Amino acid sequence: MLERAESNCVTIIPTFEDNFCYVVEYSPGNALLIDPAEPSKVWPVVSQMPLKITHIMATHHHWDHSGGNNEMVKLLKERGEEKVEVVGGRKDAVEGKTISVGDVDELELGKFKVSFLETPGHTNGHICYYFDSADETMVFTGDCLFVGGCGKFFEGSADEMFGSFMKLAVLPRSTLVYVGHEYTISNYSFATKAVQTDAVAARAQWAAEKRANGEFTVPSTIGDEIDSNVFMMAVLEKEGVNGGVWGGFLTKCGCAAGSSFLPAELLGKVREAKDKNLLK
Questions:
Q1: Which of 29, 47, 58, 152 could make a disulfide contact with 94, Cβ separation 3.0–4.6 Å?
Q2: Structure confidence by residue, pLDDT tens digits, 231-260
């Protein structure tokens, strides 16, 4: 199943069981690929598109995001593409990488200015790709930010993921969010047990309806994630005390009455609760 996303320059290609690859047509006839990790599914689509592929951008080094880079470059060059750059984080061992990027780097592609946000936590060298233009903004978040969730802290810490989420939280609320996996139902099953807010409940219902209709839950928006993603809510929590929206959650996690946490600590508690299935 393929869907044209809300941005008319992005095409979604589902890969593996729940991954996403994205084709971004940044100018007429020119495009790039984000996380084309399963060439057997990506190539049959891309090869039929009247587009020159100039870049492959990998969010991080995990095989289900960058493991298809070399094969995709090979296929593209056999088709006639003279040069395909493979972009990855400067701290990341991305397969086939030819360009290393980080926070200080930018790239002009068609109407877009592309910024490379270093977003460690899931992996040390994780990159989110922020596309900014006069008429739209969008960010490709890999396994940092999911719709209603976030990636596991495989190589990083709660403090690092806190910093990464803060970089995303300051983007315009209307920014379209394209994530690395279709985990939304699982994320909101957890979220509705963690906190009880109208926004979380509404998003859980929205996600259930989208999936029941065979639709993807991407793109989201930064505004929606700020309002209803419990991991982002933890990051932006100013108090973090055992009361209010977090009271029941902290009690279920065994925290003493009146416990107080910094936002990064609260983020760590939320991640631990999901990892260990504490909210049964």
A1: 58
A2: 999 999 875 555 578 888 988 888 887 778
